[in-house]
Design goal:
It catalyses: urate + NADH + O2 + H(+) = 5-hydroxyisourate + NAD(+) + H2O. Helices cover 38% and strands 25% of the residues. By secondary structure, it is of the alpha/beta class. It has one domain: FAD/NAD(P)-binding domain. The chain binds flavin-adenine dinucleotide (FAD).
Length: 400
């Protein structure tokens, strides 16, 4: 049986959901607020659980080709002293899939093309919805109404529709630090080309991660770089001062960090005050599913926000398919599917949101003694502890 599925938001969550439903033969329309898709941010590290979903959706090979070859992890102190250096190969062998750090633009375009431009309508600002036993109606800012069997709400961390689905006002919470991120041409002078390097100290962090070419026309390998600094909320955001600010925050840090700051083009930088959303008690209401950052905005310190959006998409489409196989009555099948989705996802994403917050606070000096203890641990780390944490997150996903 073919359903009409309406997806709000054409980010990586909404597009993954659209693709998952299309592959099961449903008729899908994606409604996106912006007139032109321009992903904010340089890149993301798609961990193996996200890549596994991409493989199921037929995009794994393309993603692997466009992404970086991240084989090692190194931690260094702020002055460049090596704390630990270990291989990620045992992790990849255990979980049977490597990680794929990738340019956001490349990931977005790959998903967009797979769904098909003809199924994605830009400039559509959804402001509300109503639902009853017969269906769901999405309401847009221009007054237009669009009916569907199922509404998938993937409208990001500032979700307009979330409160209605959850049935209460949900607030985003500041995690306590600011992240500047950017892409730079990869070079051995900055970091080994296959290693994720992280400099840590003073509750701050500088990260360089190999992210491949992202399909850029020059075939130039790049690093995905970010700078984290604990700061009060609402500090001024002035792109003209980014380089100067980073020089101040990282004065006296290791030479590659200084070189990186001088190297980056501030015009290509994104600056984000990191927020999360306390775990939600439900991700569904009648004929509506909440998905991606709208459902579980989290600190990026586990690199899991996008991966969880992809898991959501896969689980939701599977739940609908299995329910439709059991009962031909759409209303009843959707009721069962949304219940299955809720049970499968509320606990999984809630646990990851909480763990990401704890890790963010540890990395960024929320409790200075804990951050100092972590620095000391990194000096003893042989990789096993780090790999085990990542392995558990990956294997806890729907595709194992
Ligand atoms: P979004 O990408 O925000 O997409 C939502 C879409 O909905 C947007 O296109 C928006 O325009 C549209 N929209 C909004 N409102 C409406 C409306 N009313 N009507 C119609 N359309 C609407 N994740 C990882 O997996 N790995 C990482 O390494 C990683 N690193 C990160 C680093 C940083 C600094 C940050 C901030 C996040 C990171 N994440 C990472 C998280 C990841 O970026 C998000 O989880 C992911 O982008 C969420 O995708 P989404 O589709 O749910 O939301």
């Amino acid at each position: 049986m073919s359903l009409n599925v309406l997806v709000i938001g054409a980010g990586m969550g909404g597009l993954s959901a659209a693709l998952a439903f299309q592959q099961q033969g449903h008729h899908v329309t994606v409604m996106e607020r912006v007139e032109e898709m321009r992903p904010v941010g340089a890149a993301i590290s798609l961990w193996s659980n996200g890549v596994k979903v991409m493989h199921k959706l037929g995009l794994g090979t393309a993603i692997e080709r466009l992404s970086g070859d991240m084989q090692r992890m190194r931690y260094l102190s702020h002055d460049g002293h090596l704390l630990s250096d270990f291989s990620l190969a045992p992790l990849y062998e255990d979980v049977k899939q490597r990680a794929c750090p990738i340019a956001r633009a490349a990931l977005q375009q790959t998903l967009f093309e797979a769904v098909g431009a003809e199924h994605i309508k830009l400039g559509q600002h959804c402001v509300d919805y109503t639902s009853d036993a017969r269906g769901v109606t999405a309401i847009f800012a221009d007054g237009r109404e669009v009916e569907a069997d199922l509404l998938v709400v993937a409208d990001g961390t500032h979700s307009r529709l979330r409160n209605k689905i959850v049935g209460r006002a949900v607030e985003r919470q500041y995690v306590g630090y600011v992240n500047w991120n950017v892409r730079v041409p990869a070079s051995n002078a900055l970091a080994p080309l296959d290693s994720w390097d992280q400099y840590v100290g003073e509750g701050k962090r500088v990260s360089l991660m190999p992210m491949g070419t992202g399909g850029n026309s020059e075939g130039q390998e790049e690093f995905y770089c970010f700078f984290d600094v604990p700061l009060p909320a609402d500090t001024p955001n002035d792109p003209a001062r980014y380089t100067e600010e980073l020089r101040e925050h990282f004065a006296g840090w290791a030479r590659p960090v200084q070189a990186l700051i001088e190297h980056v083009d501030p015009a290509r930088m994104a600056r984000v005050e990191i927020h999360d959303i306390a775990p939600l008690e439900t991700l569904t209401s009648n004929r509506v599913a909440l998905l991606g950052d709208a459902a579980h905005g989290m600190a990026p310190d586990l690199g899991q926000g996008g991966c969880q959006a992809m898991e959501d998409a896969w689980v939701l489409a599977q739940a609908v398919q299995q329910a439709l196989e059991k009962t031909p009555v759409v209303e009843e099948a959707l009721r069962q599917a949304l219940e299955t989705y809720d049970v499968a996802r509320v606990e999984r994403v809630g646990e990851i949101v909480a763990r990401a917050r704890t890790r963010a606070e540890m990395i960024h000096g929320h409790t200075p003694a804990l951050t100092q203890a972590w620095y000391a641990e990194l000096g003893q780390e042989d990789g096993q502890g780090v790999r085990e944490g990542i392995r558990k997150t990956i294997l806890g996903g729907p595709l194992g």
